Inverse folding.
């Protein structure tokens, strides 16, 4: 479980540190898919524990997917801002989940910075 949490943390860190701009939607989508895979792996390890926190991360990822789709379809300042806001939501939700796991896994799961 702790390795899966560390993998998720690293994946979220990569996703949230992408520089948003023209042509980065594909990079964000790729990083997003990686975070989803890591979240799925971690969720399997949790066996139903921390379901609320994991669901919050999944919801934040879905919001980000929509924002990235909007950015791809209608590139503008407002859609870039939407992606930025959604990335912050993913970072916050992931931080909450990883903080919940810290007692079992120690400081290796410190929260990702947005």
């Amino acid at each position: 479980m702790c390795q899966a949490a560390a993998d998720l943390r690293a994946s979220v860190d990569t996703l949230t540190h992408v520089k948003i701009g023209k042509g980065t939607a594909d990079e964000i989508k790729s990083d997003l898919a990686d975070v989803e895979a890591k979240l799925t792996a971690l969720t399997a390890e949790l066996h139903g524990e921390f379901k609320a926190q994991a669901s919050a991360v999944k919801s934040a990822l879905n919001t980000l997917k929509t924002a990235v789709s909007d950015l791809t379809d209608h590139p503008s300042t407002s859609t870039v801002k939407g992606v930025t806001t959604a990335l912050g939501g993913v970072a916050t939700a992931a931080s909450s989940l990883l903080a919940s796991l810290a007692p079992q896994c120690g400081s290796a799961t410190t929260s990702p910075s947005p």
The two ends are 23 Å apart (CA to CA).
